[in-house]
C-alpha cells in the first residue's frame, strides 16, 4: 500500500489554523492602529523565537515537542512537556466546540438553541467523536480534511477581508473612529495594555503542534519551509484583517461575533448582504478545522512518549492504522463527561470552563519554557543546527522566549475583569491548584511506567 504523505501545503495550512483565526480579531480591532504594536511586541518576543527554535529542532528531530524536550532535558521532562500541551487542550475542546454550536445555530437563525445545554452538549459530543474517528483512520485523511476546512474557514475569509478592505478604501467609504481616533502607540501607563501584550504571547502559540507529523512528509527536513510559511501567514492574518475590521467596527461591538458583523457591514455596502451568513458558516468550519489539528498533534506526541516507555501500557494502544487508539478514546470519554456539564449546570458551565482554560494556560506556557530550555541544551551539545537549519542567535532568541513565557505565566495568577466574582486573594491559589492537579499526573504516570 502506497504511503499517504502529508504535503507541505497541508502542513502549512494546519499550522496556520492552529495559530491564527478570525474569531479573536475584533478584540484587537477595537484598539485601532495600536493593535499593530500590541501584535508586534509579542511577535518579536515570542513568535519569532518559537518559529526559529521550532525550525531548528524540527530540522533535526521529527518527533515534535516530546522528542525535542526528551533529547535536550531527559525523558521525564519530555513527557512533562507533551503532557502539558495535551492536557491543556483537553480542557479547551468543550469550550471551542460550544462556540461552534452557538455560531452554527445563529447561522441558521435558531437564536434560542445556544441557550439549550442539551443542544450544546450534543454538538460537542458529535463533532469531537467525528474528529476522533478521522484521526483513528490514520494516513493523511485528517490532514486533508483539516487543511481543506482551514482553507474554507480561515484563509479564504481572510483573503476576502483583504479584498473587501481594499474596495472599502478605493470607494472612499466611511472609516470608523475606532481606527481614525486611535494612536499607533498604546497607552503603556495603563496595566490593561501591558496585560494585553503578555496575553497576546499565546495568540501566537501553536507553531510546534504539528511538528510531530513531520515524519509523514515526503522529506521531513522540509518542515522548516512549513514554519516559514506559517510564520508569514499567521502574521498577515492577524495584523491586516484586524486593521480592516477597525475601519468598519464601532468600539462597542460585541466581540464574540464582531468578525461576522464586520463582514456583514462591508458586504451590505456592496449589495451582497447574504454573504454574511456564508462567512459565519465558514468561520464555524474553520473552528472545527482547528479542533482536528489540535487533536492529532498532541495526542500523537503523547503516544510517542508511551512507546518510549514513559507512560503505562494503556497509552500505547493503537489500531490497525497505527493511530493512537487508547489516547484518542480516553480523550473522547473525558470530553463527553465535560460536555455533560452543559446539561447538568447549563447556567454556569460556560463561566467555569472559561475560568479553567484561563488557569490551564499556565501549563501551556510552561511547555514552551521547557522547549526553549531544550533548544539551548541541544545546541550546547552540538546536536542541532549542524545541518538542515541553523537558527541565528539561538541562545538570545530562546532566552527572550523564556522571558516572554515567564511574564505570561505570572499573569495567569492575576484575575481579569471577567473574573471579578472571585476574591483576589483566592484566585492565585485556584490557579496554582489547577496547575498542580493537571500537571502532577504526568509525573505519577511516569513513575508507574518505570516501575514496571
Lay out the secondary structure:
Elements: H1 8-19, H2 25-29, H3 34-60, H4 64-73, H5 75-107, H6 117-136, H7 141-170, H8 177-180, H9 191-199, H10 223-248, H11 258-269, H12 275-307, H13 325-344, H14 349-380, H15 394-411, H16 427-451
Helix pairs in contact: 1-7, 1-10, 1-12, 3-9, 3-10, 3-14, 3-15, 4-5, 4-12, 4-14, 5-6, 5-12, 5-13, 5-14, 5-16, 6-12, 6-13, 7-10, 7-12, 11-12, 14-15, 14-16
Features:
single chain, 452 residues, mainly alpha, Amino acid/polyamine transporter I, 16 helices
Provide a descriptive summary of the structure in words:
With 452 residues, the chain is mainly alpha-helical. The protein has one domain (8-90, 141-289, 350-451): Amino acid/polyamine transporter I (Up-down Bundle), CATH 1.20.1740.10. Helices cover 70% and strands 0% of the residues. It has 16 helices and no strands. The protein has helices at residues 8-19, 25-29, 34-60, 64-73, 75-107, 117-136, 141-170, 177-180, 191-199, 223-248, 258-269, 275-307, 325-344, 349-380, 394-411, 427-451. The model has no long low-confidence stretch (mean pLDDT 86).
Outline of this structure?
With 452 residues, the protein is mostly helical.
Amino acid at each position: 500500500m502506497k504511503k499517504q504523505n502529508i504535503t507541505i501545503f497541508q502542513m502549512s495550512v494546519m499550522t496556520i489554523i492552529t495559530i491564527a483565526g478570525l474569531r479573536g480579531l475584533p478584540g484587537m480591532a477595537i484598539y485601532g492602529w495600536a493593535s499593530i504594536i500590541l501584535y508586534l511586541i509579542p511577535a518579536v518576543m515570542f513568535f519569532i523565537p518559537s518559529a526559529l527554535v521550532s525550525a531548528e529542532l524540527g530540522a533535526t528531530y521529527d518527533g515534535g515537542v516530546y522528542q525535542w524536550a526528551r533529547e535536550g532535558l531527559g525523558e521525564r521532562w519530555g513527557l512533562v512537556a507533551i503532557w502539558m500541551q495535551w492536557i491543556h487542550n483537553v480542557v479547551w475542546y468543550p469550550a471551542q466546540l460550544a462556540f461552534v454550536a452557538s455560531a452554527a445555530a445563529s447561522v441558521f437563525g435558531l437564536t434560542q438553541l445556544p441557550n439549550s445545554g442539551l443542544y450544546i452538549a450534543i454538538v460537542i459530543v458529535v463533532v469531537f467523536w467525528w474528529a476522533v474517528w478521522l484521526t483513528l483512520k490514520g494516513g493523511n485523511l485528517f490532514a486533508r480534511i483539516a487543511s481543506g476546512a482551514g482553507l474554507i474557514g480561515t484563509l479564504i475569509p481572510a483573503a476576502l477581508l483583504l479584498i473587501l478592505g481594499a474596495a472599502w478604501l478605493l470607494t472612499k467609504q466611511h472609516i470608523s473612529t475606532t481606527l481614525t481616533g486611535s494612536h499607533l502607540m498604546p497607552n503603556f501607563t495603563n496595566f490593561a495594555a501591558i496585560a494585553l501584550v503578555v496575553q497576546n504571547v499565546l495568540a501566537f502559540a501553536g507553531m510546534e503542534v504539528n511538528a510531530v507529523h513531520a515524519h509523514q512528509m515526503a522529506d521531513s527536513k522540509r518542515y522548516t519551509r512549513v514554519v516559514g510559511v506559517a510564520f508569514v501567514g499567521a502574521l498577515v492574518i492577524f495584523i491586516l484583517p484586524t486593521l480592516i475590521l477597525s475601519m468598519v467596527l464601532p468600539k462597542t461591538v460585541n466581540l464574540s461575533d464582531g468578525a461576522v458583523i464586520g463582514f456583514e457591514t462591508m458586504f451590505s455596502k456592496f449589495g451582497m448582504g447574504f454573504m454574511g451568513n456564508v462567512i459565519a458558516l465558514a468561520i464555524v468550519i474553520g473552528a472545527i478545522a482547528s479542533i482536528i489539528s489540535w487533536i492529532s498533534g498532541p495526542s500523537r506526541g503523547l503516544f510517542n512518549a508511551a512507546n518510549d516507555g514513559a507512560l503505562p501500557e494503556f497509552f500505547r494502544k493503537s489500531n490497525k492504522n497505527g493511530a493512537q487508539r487508547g489516547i484518542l478514546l480516553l480523550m473522547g470519554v473525558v470530553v463527553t463527561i465535560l460536555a455533560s456539564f452543559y446539561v447538568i449546570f447549563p447556567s454556569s458551565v460556560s463561566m467555569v470552563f472559561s475560568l479553567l482554560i484561563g488557569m490551564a494556560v499556565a501549563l501551556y506556557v510552561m511547555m514552551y519554557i521547557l522547549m526553549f530550555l531544550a533548544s539551548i541544551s541541544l545546541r550546547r551539545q552540538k546536536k542541532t543546527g549542524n545541518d538542515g537549519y541553523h537558527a541565528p542567535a539561538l541562545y538570545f532568541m530562546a532566552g527572550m522566549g523564556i522571558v516572554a513565557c515567564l511574564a505570561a505565566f505570572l499573569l495567569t495568577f492575576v484575575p481579569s475583569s471577567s473574573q471579578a466574582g472571585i476574591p483576589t486573594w483566592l484566585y492565585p491559589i485556584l490557579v496554582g491548584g489547577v496547575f498542580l492537579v493537571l500537571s502532577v499526573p504526568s509525573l505519577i504516570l511516569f513513575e508507574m511506567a518505570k516501575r514496571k
